[in-house]
Amino acid sequence: MQKNQILKRLMAVSVAAAMFGAVGAQAQTSQQSGASSTAATASSDAKLTSADRKAIMDMGMSNMAEVEMGKLAQSKSQNAEVKAFAQKMVDDHGKALTEVQTLAQSKGVTLPTELDAKHKAMSAKLEKMSGDAFDKAYVKQGGVGAHKETLTKLQAASKGAKDPEVKGQVDKMIPVVQEHLKHAEQLAQGKSSSTGSSGAGHTGSSH
User: Where is the composition biased (Gly residues) (predicted)?
Assistant: First the structure.
């Protein structure tokens, strides 16, 4: 009788120990799973190629520069067509910049918060101009020149992109930049009077 009671107690202790052991193992497994998930995320960020990282940085800089120069043109130009073009740059590139910032954050890329030396110099040069001279310089540099350079970088980035989200953002920007370049070239050639209305109407449908 006494032996039976001892056996029952031993069995109860064994069951309790087994239960606690299972709970402990489950907790450890959960912790390991969480650690693995964190490591996987970090590994995913680390796998971003230098080319993809550069593409994000370039998109951030070009969009920021277009917004800044567009705002400058809005305040300095007296030409209705130039002001309309500048507003389009602020709107389109402002939206694109927000998208690039979201992408950069998800990929662990820190974007610059101010213009680089080249764009600062360009803005400083424009700041000193006024009237027709400003309009021509803005359209030539901030319109035609900047968009040609951006388009070349985007097309190269699209071909070499490894990350699907980076490539998706690059490919989304290409037709917008192509449209901007065409509009800027029309302004530069003095043809915007015949095509400006359709270009302005296309602003809302470019996104």
Answer: 198-207
